[in-house]
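To close the section, here is one more complete example, presented without commentary so you can practise reading it yourself. The ligand is magnesium ion.
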Amino acid sequence: IWADVLGYVRKNISEVEYHTWFAPVKNLGVQEGSLVLGVRNSFAQEWFRKHYLELLEDALRSLGAQHPQVSFQVLPAAQDALLLPSDPPPAPPVPGRVSAPPPSDNRKTLNPKYTFENFVVGPNNNLAHAAALAVAESPGKAYNPLFIYGDVGLGKTHLMHAVGHYIAERFPEKRIEYVSTETFTNELINAIREDKTTQFRNRYRSVDLLLVDDIQFLAGKERTQEEFFHTFNALYENHKQIILSSDRPPKDIQTLEGRLRSRFEWGLITDIQSPEFETRVAILKMNAEHNRIDIPQEVLELIARQVTTNIRELEGALMRVVAFSSLNNVPFSRAVASKALSNVFAPQEVKVEMMDVLRQVASHFNMPPDVIRGSGRVREVVVPRQVAQYLIRDLTDHSLPEIGQFFGRDHSTVMHAISKVTEQLGKDPELTAAVETLRRKMKGLEDEDS
Ligand code: ADP
Ligand code: MG
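Output:
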């Protein structure tokens, strides 16, 4: 009957979901009237209970079962390739019984996908990753608080959850609370309205690890700031670990009380930048493997070229390509991928790659590309370099840090170059002509290509 159940499930969920969740499931047979399924870890177990229990019961009902029952059991460690090597093996399953639920209820708010194992480390995030790992290994002792900031979709939430999972696995007795600033605020408002602020306080002040996401939303919320201030102090004084994420560093969060800002700066502040090309490809590759999708490297590279700043969008693009080729029943290819992504990324957004721009600039100024990218500081080199950075920013979607990295410099240098060129446009005839000629040439190039 298991094959029939799977058939039913498969019809009712997406292919990607099916492969992610159902492909690794083991049928352990029927015990005491209940279909027992083996899953890879306690997170998968929770996930199944929450998301697929009803679907599975429906499947059994469709096969004639009157009172369908399904339970989940965690399989022994060897079957879970995703666990870290240093992981202690989970307790062997008790035959005929579903293993105990995780000790602390709030763990289920952690996304099972957001683990360290699933986090690709690159130059853009290695410091944040190392800091998170250090905190996970000695909570409350390494850096407190850990403050991670960066643009949306770059992995802040993922890293926070990863610390949560890591601590949950190693220290089952520790209480972990993950909360978005928005939820924290709403809960506080409700608690005040229902006269339950004591419960609210007890709950947040009794945890061992508090993860607060998108703390920039504290801005302007005086009452919440006040409450969070006391929560922070209570935890900090008891050496409990606090991790905060934000889209900007503490000093840039407007209307944040000084005493909170300074507390946020007590520990370690670390940032995540946009991933460079290689990291983007690696993330796509890991995603594809995780979902058991066999997709050629060149197609992954094409996707990685199209989506440059946001990892969530990068994953979305991969899923779009997968959906497109399975719907049309065609194998993955660059052509198929371009087509799948063409509605999302309009033709005018087609990337003129950084190297192309650099080459054009180099030939215009009659100078080898490497010299322009080099460290020379004479005007003859500096001007072409600034023009190249300006044009790359103008014609491609690369972020300032990415452009900086391409030139072996940091993003503030690129910012400076861009404002320099902008300032001179219209004033310096030679520079203006160069920029215009190059821009026209490159727009033309794009047209020829497409
Ligand atoms: P943020 O909280 O910074 O907005 P998220 O943590 O929600 O970003 O990440 C967005 C998506 O990108 C998630 O699906 C996450 O798993 C994925 N992601 C981000 N960084 C990485 C990484 N380094 N390796 C693998 N996946 C990543
Ligand atoms: Mg987030």
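Once you have examined the tokens, check your reading against these statements. The first strand starts at residue 26 and ends at 31. Confidence is low (pLDDT under 50) at residues 78-104, 346-350, 446-450.
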